[in-house]
Amino acid sequence: MLNKDGFDLWSDRYDVSVKEADERNQYPFAGYTRLMNAIYGTIMEHSPAKVLDIGFGTALLTSRLYDAGNQITGIDFSAEMIRIASIKMPTATLLQWDFSLGIPPVLSEQSFDFIVSTYALHHLTDAAKVSFISSLLNLLEAKGVLLIGDVCFRSREELRLCKAASRDSWDNDEVYFVVSELEEQLSPVCELVFHEFSFCSGVIEFRKKP
Ligand SMILES: C[S@@+](CC[C@H](N)C(=O)[O-])C[C@H]1O[C@@H](n2cnc3c(N)ncnc32)[C@H](O)[C@@H]1O
Q1: Distance, C-alpha 137 to centroid of its chain
Q2: 202 in ligand 1 pocket by Cβ < 6 Å?
Q3: Which helix (H) or strand (E) holds 33?
Q4: I need a labelling partner for 29 at 20 to 30 A (CA). Which of 20, 74, 151, 195 fits?
Q5: Which long-range contacts (CB under 8 A, 24 or more apart) does 161-170 make?
Q6: Within a 13 Å sphere around the CA of 123, how many CA atoms are in the beta-carbon half?
Q7: Where are the beta strands (DSSP E) in the chain?
Q8: Whose CA is nearest to atom 15 of ligand 1?
Q9: Model pLDDT for residues 96-129, shown as the tens digit of each residue
């Protein structure tokens, strides 16, 4: 699994490498551009919005939202990713923080219309995902939405089939989302809707239950 130094090194060729993998329709980035555009479109329907991005990277998504007038706060642990993102979004609030430690204390009193996270939370175990997502739900406005776009499968069986088909490139250190299992754990506190974008990717939409 990449640590923050690994992400620092990847930062200058990240944008090109994900786009190329998407164009080849390959795991893990097949569907990446459509997925990002869909999240962008959903938020823009409510623009200007207050948006928190978890693991914003080179800000491929959030810089577009920033340019369109949304108010951006972000968390990432890579100094290089933050450097690149802050050039694109000079007045955004970009915090260097490791999300495996939970929510940064400075955000605990804030609330957001949208919280987004793309291709970042697969660095958490399944148990840590449930706990972190629960904390994120607490940062949403009453009608706020959490949008997680990532390598994602409806069921454990779909994940198994993708792993078998992508044996040469499969990353055993990453822990991908299985929607049915997440739903079992989180349905008491929120509503989940899954939008599939490719054989290995999708967006999970979370809304707090009233
Ligand atoms: C694959 S990139 C995704 C970037 C961007 N969200 C996108 O979709 O293009 C993952 C990002 O999450 C950040 N990240 C990974 N693990 C993290 C952690 N534990 N705490 C904070 N940031 C983390 C990395 O530094 C990197 O910028």
Answers
A1: 14
A2: no
A3: helix 32-44
A4: 74
A5: 162/27, 162/199, 162/200, 165/27, 166/26, 166/27, 166/200, 169/26, 169/27, 169/28, 170/27
A6: 19
A7: 50-54, 71-76, 93-96, 112-118, 140-153, 177-178, 190-198, 201-208
A8: 120
A9: 999 999 999 999 999 999 999 999 999 999 999 9
For the CA of 55, the nearest atom of ligand 1: 12
pTM of the model: 0.95
Q: Ligand 1 atom closest to Cα of 32?
A: 8
Has residue 1 got a pLDDT over 70? no
Examine the pLDDT at 41 and tell me if it is beyond 80.
yes
Ligand 1 proximity of 59 Cβ (cutoff 6 Å): no
Query: Which domains, and CATH codes, for the chain?
Result: 4-208 (3.40.50.150)
Q: Which residue has the tokens 């940062």?
A: 139
Chain position carrying tokens 């995902």: 129
- Are 206 and 186 within 8 A, CB to CB? yes
